[in-house]
Amino acid sequence: MSVLTTKYQPSKSELLASFTNGVRPDKELYVQEILVQKAWATGLSEIGILTSIECSKIQTALSQASDLMEANKFDWREEDEDIHMNLERFVNDMTQGLGKKMHAGRSRNDLIATTLKLHVADSVTEVVALLNNLIQCMVTLADKNKYVIIPGMTHLQNGQPIRWSHALLGHAWAFKRDLKKFQTVKENTLSVMPLGSAALAGTTLAVDLNKIAKTLGFNSPSINSYDSVGERDSVIDFLQAAAHFGTHLSRLAEDVIYWSSAPVGLVELSPNWSTGSSIMPNKRNPDIAELARAKASLWIGDSNGVLTLVKGLATSYASDLHEIKIPYLRVLNDVKLTLNIFAHFISELSVNRSRAKSLLDQGHILATELANHLTDQGIAFREAYGVVAGLVELAESKKVQVHELALKDIQTLTSGIDEKFLNQLTFEATVEKRKFAGGTALLEIEKQILLLK
User: Fold this and answer.
1) Is-catalytic flag, 373?
2) Residue 10: which pLDDT band, with cuts at 50, 70 and 90?
3) At what angle do helices 52-70 and 30-46 cross, to 10 degrees?
4) Given 18, 63, 220, 277, which residue is catalytic?
5) Crossing angle for the helix pair 233-260 and 325-347, to the nearest 10 degrees
6) Is 277 annotated in the active site?
């Protein structure tokens, strides 16, 4: 018995097509999309919707499409609306119409949800590798400069001496936390496969969804089809992880900008990874750090924008979800580019060791050490604090650092500090006293370096 079919395709104006089509962002999803298409075709073949020969022809056509897309030679057509219909048309052309059969039992709704999840998972793998590389570049730089001591600061005011490596590795630990966030994003992304949810109510075909999920790297098929087709948590989670990473990167960028500024002069920028002025030949600008700081703001904005877009949607699918791909891909490409160049930028920074030494003689940064010594003599810390505050005031009046005061001047305020202690009071000895967990002593720095390696 033959089934009578009619060909009907409603016309669509060019303006409507240009407004509703999602071809441009979809081009970046082709690797994952074709994997999903192939897995579904195999599933259809196993239940007899496609013959083995038909399945083979479809698989071959999909591989040809992939090769053309990779070579930027695929005939993308906006009137086909998205990557799914472009592929269906291509397979039709290459197989005398088999593209019409491969969409059985599914919808573009569950197809794009699955493709996006796979893209997020693959993207996280790339970002994690790049972030790991940046961390290792920072570790190498810290190891190279672990004997350099600088004033540690709070409120951008000199406080106590620390090793410069300690400050740098502080940023590396923040990035290590970002690594865990991104890895969690991937784990959550691959927990449930939307494919098989069809438009919203689930597929009517007995396709082995558990097998397809395993093939594509998911832990299980959908639990609730109505949720699966409209859920974009993986994209939101990625954007939030990127925003958090951007916040940490921006703080590192700010430190490098400060360290390399003319008044500070602690760090020198590599001419390979900085730029000059168009008019001032004496300038060397930290453009990479400044642009990273700016980009972080945009990543935070895109993360909040997507979250805001989703919060107003009813359950299941809506065309609003098309728009999520654009900020997601923008942030992803930006994060990868920034991670790549920032690793070079950091690797070629050099520390001005003579400037580091001169910076130590600003801000009375051994004052806390004097207060601690008085506390060791049995004086209550708050009283010791008051005594040393008086010594700082005295040092200010004499235009010297507090540790440079003559013993006779010190002993006008306290007898708890003697010549022996003053002779042992050095920046090196001070940082080496911080030898307990998380401190800035050399052994603790080397422990951090080992852990990060």
Assistant:
1) no
2) low
3) 180
4) 277
5) 30
6) yes
- Name residue, tokens 């020969």: 53
Question: By residue range, what is the domain housing residue 70?
Answer: 14-104
The verdict on residue 211 lying in a domain is no
Catalytic: which of 2, 155, 278, 397? 155
**44: domain CATH number?**
1.10.275.10
Q: For residue 142, what are the CA distances in angstroms to 86, 135, 164, 344?
A: 51, 10, 8, 15
Neighbours of 292 (CB within 10 A): 24
Give the Å distances, CA to CA, from 300 to 122, 154, 163, 181, 287. Answer: 21, 25, 32, 15, 20
**Per-residue pLDDT tens for 323-379?**
999 999 999 999 999 999 999 999 999 999 999 999 999 999 999 999 999 999 999
Domain termination residue (choose one: 340, 358, 376): 358
SS (H, E, C) 175-220: HHHHHHHHHHHHHHHCCEECCCCCCCCCCCCCCCHHHHHHHHCCCE
Token digits of residue 429: 């000895």
| 163 and 185 belong to one structural domain | yes
